[in-house]
Amino acid sequence: MQTRHITRRQTLISAAAAALALPQMSWAQAPYPTRAVTLTHGFGAGGNADVVARLIGQKMSESLKQPVIVDIKSGAGGVIATNAVAKSAPDGYNLVMLTGAHTVSAALKKKLPYDPVNDFAFISTVSAFPFVVAVRAEHPAKTLQDLIAMAKKEPGKVTFTSVGVGSTQHMVGELLGSTANVELLHVPYRGGGAPVQAVIAGDVDVLTDTLTVAAPHIKSGRLRALGVTSAGVWPTAPDIPPVSATLPGFEVRSWLGLAAPAGTPAAIIDKLVADAHLALKDPGVQKTLAGAGSMPAPNTPAEFKSMVQSEVARWRTVIAKVGIPLQD
User: Fold this and answer.
1) H/E stretch holding 86
2) What is the mean pLDDT of residues 85-105?
3) pLDDT for position 7
4) Whether the predicted pLDDT of 191 surpasses 80
5) pTM higher than 0.70, yes or no?
6) Does residue 45 contact residue 72 with C-beta atoms inside 8 Å?
7) Torsion over CA of 326, 116, 73 and 262, rounded to 10 degrees?
8) Alpha carbon of 120 to those of 58, 90, 224, 261, 308: distances in Å?
9) Number of neighbours of residue 309 by Cβ within 10 angstroms
10) Which region holds residue 78: left if phi is over 0, alpha if psi is between -120 and 50, else beta?
11) Which helix (H) or strand (E) holds 316?
């Protein structure tokens, strides 16, 4: 009787424990996501990063079946936004839209508040786009060869502009001068429409910027495109010769890509990869990206991570060769 009593008691205790555990087990096994996902970026409203973040976020929300809320934390070339996500919980609810500036900052800054590679679980790049080298319509340089010849004749006199020291546009200009073995003088602005207006007005010789910024002025005839920085002819700008036709091997393509904090579970990353790639197959998304001078650029987390590592190394080489002081 005693043995039977103990067995019955143990059975009751086990059943009670299982019943108490059910809600917790159900909660733990709830499919991701169960609430809104926040996608943060560090650049201005209406800019390339913002437009693409909202485009991809909206499309991914359809497959995630939860809202994707775009949060802007602008400043410091994207470092503020990137740091906020790097320090957030690795649960899949805090994502960052990284840009090519992520690798430039890693190469140019003496110290960052995060590790640009190891503090992130990379998901996929979203879009890729080149830059365009352009001058005002009245500029004497009709071709890139003409511009290089001018720079060789008068070192340091040919100027180029960008949206700021350490921007990817700045690096494009420096790499152009370094590859052509000429001295170009950098004249930075604080972003917005100032750089392109400075070139149109004749205050600066050369614009190095995205097609999103330059294309309307090229079409209007106020700017003359001398080259595009893709390896070959860019699909949305077939009339612009690649810089590589004059400087073999020259290529700079920037990008936008999704990442999460390091430690985010692999199953969540896998789902986000699948949903991002699905969004990039959408004809409407592809059309919008093409209109901004970009193209879909899905890849794997491993490929994304490798690209970031190689670009950081590349920009460090350019910065050291040109002699750009590291920034605090």
Assistant:
1) helix 79-86
2) 96
3) 52
4) no
5) yes
6) yes
7) -160
8) 23, 9, 40, 5, 11
9) 14
10) left
11) helix 301-322
